[in-house]
Specification:
The structure holds two protein chains of two kinds. Chain A is mainly α. Chain A is built from 14 helices and four strands. In chain A, strand 1, helix 3 and strand 2 form a beta-alpha-beta unit. In chain A, helix 3 packs across helix 6. The longest helix of chain A has 36 residues. Chain A is elongated and about 95 Å long. Chain A starts with a helix and ends in a 5-residue tail after the last helix. By secondary structure, chain B is of the alpha/beta class. In chain B, the strands form two sheets. Chain B has a six-stranded mixed beta sheet with strand order 6-7-8-3-9-10, sandwiched between helices. In chain B, a hairpin with a 2-residue loop joins strand 4 and strand 5. The N terminus and C terminus of chain B are likely disordered. The chains are: A mainly alpha, B alpha/beta. At the A-B interface, helix 1 and helix 8 of A face helix 3 and helix 4 of B.
């Protein structure tokens, strides 16, 4: 083993000891992702249940009651009878007692029997456009259910033109779990490496390292290696929990996933090193690491908002967010079973980004403490 | 860089970065060494020769330039001007070789508090490239000297300050460096520990190590072979404790320091490298003007 390798191993071993001896950090590393996973996975669930809806039945016939039953049948709506008065509709919207109102006009059954169709009015509170869209879809489902219950022989009385873009319950988790893996990994990596370097500056041990024969690249390798390992464990942990809790599929190659995740981890660690060459105290390092990783990852990586729908300027800004590339990779591998042929572009981008960050960090580390 | 060649160069004592007229025996040699921070001159045109095996004391008030001086010699800080060689290697160009030949203990406690005593020793042994057997031997030796065998697996943060400092000194000496730089190593520790410290320093000096130590305890200056007194970045007095006391007609270094540092002595004892480095000729054994036999015992009175 060369002298340089020996020194690197010593440094890495020492770093590993720091990690093992600090159970609080370990706890944060594994509990934080779990909390975020549950938060995003459940609370951020795009589906809504038991929407309060008012019913105005002006027909009061067998057919109208049957239609209303089909709304009641699922757990999507919680119906309340508003009686016959349309004046109450507005009040119930304002007081949020109802977020949708279903009005069956008089003569509904007669129109239905006579054909070719009958009208039903659905008024939806669209102050929250997202859930309004969902409610519209649900109404379509309920009406389709009603049609089906009238038997295959019955004429299709309604023109149902609802396009269900996705199955909300499943796909929101499919969408978010990989995103959380991407976010947690960049956060943990950048945070932990920048803290560990800043701590050595604070306590004066960095100075002790700098008067020793240890070279900058050895310090960096010694710092990065243990955290690659830790971040890898962490990422696998989130992914497995996500797969168990939310049935996220794994359609692609495990090997490709391991390889590209390692690349992404090294990108994030380099980002942390870069921060630590600027930050002199742990406090500053924490602030910088969180600011640089968290917000851009949430807003600009495509984790929540599609990049295509952003203004041009912001679209350009997404190019420097590492999670943007990893999201393409992880979603591709997990959901679509993409191979390297499809993913070489984001992979190459990460590689270039990592090389630049590492080169700059090694250079900045190589400088004396002061000039 | 070719490591084996570097080590070979370090081994024969005379590096290639040394000037032809510099004696091989010199551990540290500076000529006109200067460091500026903006318009502030922290170290101003300092020329020194420190011989091998010498205990060289650096006295001065806070901000006199002691720490800056040591940091430049250790390769932590670039000089703004002048020349310096450490162990025969030029500080500008051969800092990698210098680092293999020096030990350094800063004012701040610099071990890892969350690691055990043992782990700290093993780590520092590792980064200086010692083999596992070597590390184990040195570790046991050091623990025995400090009387810490029973506490080897204790976290370093649980140690009393005196032990911490002695442990830090021990780790700075772990790789058997030729020159040790100690920046106020005894600040904050009680007199008993200070005494133990100086015992170690004398022991190392007898083995041929050069010890470069800064302090603001005047009685410690009496244990040095030679002392230099700094003020405003300049060396304003230099010589063995005995010679300085004779020169200024004082009975303790404390009194000499007060006289010199208050400004009266500046004219008399100005930095004069030719006259101020009497040890260079005889360095390697006992320095010329130091008390023969490794200096005074701690607590010893004034001669």
């Amino acid at each position: 083993m060369s002298a340089s390798m020996k020194r690197t191993v010593s440094l890495a071993r020492k770093e590993l000891l720091h990690i093992v001896k600090d159970p609080r950090t370990l706890l944060i590393v594994f509990i934080m992702p779990l909390v975020q996973l549950v938060m995003f996975g459940y609370a951020f669930d795009l589906e809504i249940h038991l929407i309060p809806a008012g019913v105005v039945d002006r027909d009061n016939s067998t057919a109208s009651r049957s239609l209303i039953e089909s709304f009641r049948g699922s757990d999507l709506f919680r119906l309340s009878d508003l009686g016959d008065t349309s004046t109450d509709i507005e009040t119930s919207f304002r007081s949020r007692k109802a977020r949708a109102v279903i009005i069956v006009p008089a003569g509904f059954e007669k129109d239905l029997l006579r054909g070719p169709g009958a009208d039903v009015q659905v008024i939806i509170d669209a102050s929250d456009p997202n859930s309004a869209q969902l409610m519209k879809n649900y109404c379509g489902q309920a009406i389709a259910g009603f049609n089906a219950s009238r038997g295959p022989g019955a004429a299709m009385p309604f023109d149902v033109r609802t396009s269900i873009l996705y199955n909300p319950d499943l796909e929101s988790a499919f969408f978010f779990v990989p995103g959380i893996v991407a976010m947690i990994m960049v956060m943990i990596c950048a945070l932990l490496t920048s803290i560990t370097v800043a701590r050595e500056k604070e306590t004066g041990t960095m100075e002790q390292l700098l008067v020793s024969p240890v070279r900058p690249r050895e310090i960096i390798a010694g710092k990065v290696l243990p955290y690659v390992f830790l971040a890898f464990l962490d990422g696998s942990f989130i992914l497995v929990v996500g797969m168990v809790l939310f049935d996220v599929p794994f359609n692609g190659s495990l090997l490709l996933m391991v390889g590209l995740s390692t690349l992404y981890i090294i990108t994030a660690l380099s980002l942390g090193l870069m921060i630590s060459t600027v930050a002199r105290t742990q406090q500053v390092a924490i602030m910088m690491a969180l600011t640089i990783t968290m917000l851009p990852t949430i807003m600009l990586s495509g984790l929540v908002f599609p990049i295509e729908s952003m203004p041009k300027v912001l679209q350009y800004a997404t190019y420097i967010v590492p999670a943007r590339y990893f999201l393409q990779i992880i979603r591709g591998i997990l959901l679509k079973g993409s191979a390297l042929v499809h993913l070489w572009q984001p992979a190459l981008s990460l590689l270039v980004m990592t090389s630049i960050l590492l080169a700059v960090s090694v250079r900045r580390f190589g400088m004396k403490l002061e000039r | 860089m070719d490591e084996t060649k570097d080590i070979a160069a370090a081994e024969d004592g005379a590096g290639t970065g040394i000037r032809a007229d510099a004696p091989v025996d010199l551990a540290v040699r500076t000529r006109g060494l200067t460091r500026r921070f903006g318009s502030f001159v922290a170290v101003d045109d300092v020329s020194l020769d420190v011989g091998r095996g010498e205990i060289f004391g650096f006295l001065g008030a806070n901000g006199a330039g002691k720490t800056t001086m040591i940091r430049m010699l250790c390769g932590l800080l670039m000089p703004s001007g002048g020349q310096a060689t450490v162990a025969g290697f030029d500080v500008y160009r051969r800092s990698e070789q210098i680092k293999r030949n020096i030990g350094y203990m800063s004012q701040r406690f610099s071990l890892y508090e969350d690691l055990t005593i043992e782990e700290n020793i093993e780590f520092y042994g590792g980064i200086y490239g010692l083999g596992m057997d070597q590390i184990r031997n040195r570790r046991d030796e050091l623990l025995e000297i400090l009387g810490l065998q029973a506490q080897a697996r204790k976290l370093t943060r649980e140690l009393p300050l005196g032990f911490k400092q002695r442990l830090a000194l021990g780790t700075a000496l772990l790789h058997d460096p030729k020159i040790v730089f100690l920046d106020e190593p005894t600040s904050g520790v009680d007199p008993r520990v200070r005494r133990a410290f100086w015992d170690v320093i004398h022991e190392e000096s007898k083995r041929g190590k050069t010890v470069f130590v800064s302090t603001h305890f005047m009685e410690e200056a009496e244990y040095c072979h030679r002392v230099s007194i700094m003020r405003d970045g300049r060396v304003i007095a230099l010589g063995s404790p005995g010679a300085l006391k004779r020169e200024y007609g004082r009975s303790t270094i404390q009194e000499v320091f007060i006289e010199v540092a208050s400004g009266e002595g500046a004219a008399r004892g100005g930095a004069d490298p030719a006259g101020a480095a009497p040890a260079s000729g005889t360095a390697g054994g006992a320095p010329a003007l130091g008390t023969p036999g490794g200096g005074r015992r701690p607590g010893g009175g004034v001669s």
